[in-house]
Amino acid sequence: MELTEQFDWQGRKVAWGRAGTGPPVVFCHGTPFSSVLWQAFAEAMSRDFTVHLWDMPGYGRSSKQAGHPVDFGVQAEVFTALLAHWGLDRPHVVAHDFGGAVSLRAHLTMGVGYASLMLIDVVAIPPSGSPFFKFVQDHPGVLDQLPSHIHTAIVRTYIQGASHRGLRDDDLDSLVRPWTGEDGQPAFYRQITDYDERFLEENERHLGRIDIPTRIVWGAQDTWIPTDIARRLQGLIPTAELSLVEGSGHLIHHDAPVALMNEVRSWLTRVRDDTG
């Protein structure tokens, strides 16, 4: 499943793709990743659903212009506009990492309706941000001047750390590739510099209003966002269920793909049948 389409929004170019038939499902990626994480899952689900993939501005195959903010607020605005462009009314949303905060903000503060929400190892509530994040934010504009081979080594090490089992070279290459080159290197540090936890604090204040079916899935060995955050998030969302997946870290897509596929398929099938 390729991102063959393009949506123009306030000077940004958003790459997206659609496949299949049936109720609409939108997959949202996180940082520092792209829709490639969801590609195989979307292809599998396209037998029963109309699946939508997209790369947030500043990520993957979407535009990465300097001067375009890529914070939670902007991404939620883009997501809201993209759903309107697709003509979707109450799609099922499946989100990972940063995509969790984006989809939550669109729902809670912009009034976007969903049929259901699946949150997988998401950035959603504070605290968040690794020591590496804090270093980049304290030294803006420094690391994007590194020699390209040093930058690539940093990104490879950083992304590899999201996996509990370790990534194969070809999988790691696909995740690192968008962050290399003249546009990719500064974009990698820009998305960290623009990271603002105040959006998470605002989300947290409104989570009790969520009344749609919600399922939280978490890698039991996630060292980026530990499971105590998952349990606290479950307690804040009245409708939330929680499932921990053993043997997987933050990149559950690669650590436990079969378990994640089972979670996604069983959840979407259930909420589809329940909502008609």
CA distance, first residue to last residue: 27 Å
Write down the overall geometry. globular
| Uncertain residue ranges | none
- Average pLDDT confidence is 95
How many beta strands in the DSSP annotation? 8
Beta-strand content estimate: 15-25%
With strands numbered from the N-terminus, the spatial order across the biggest sheet is 1-2-4-3-5-6-7-8
Domain AB hydrolase-1: 25-260
Pfam family, one: Abhydrolase_6
GO molecular function, one term: hydrolase activity
Keywords: Hydrolase
List keywords for this structure.
276 residues, alpha/beta, 11 helices, globular
Describe the structure.
One of its GO terms (molecular function) is hydrolase activity. The protein has 276 residues and is of the alpha/beta class. 43% of the residues lie in helices and 17% in strands. It is built from 11 helices and 8 strands. Strands 1-2-4-3-5-6-7-8 form an 8-stranded mixed sheet, with helices on both faces. The longest helix is centred in the last third of the chain and has 19 residues, at 257-275. The chain is globular. The model has no long low-confidence stretch (mean pLDDT 95).
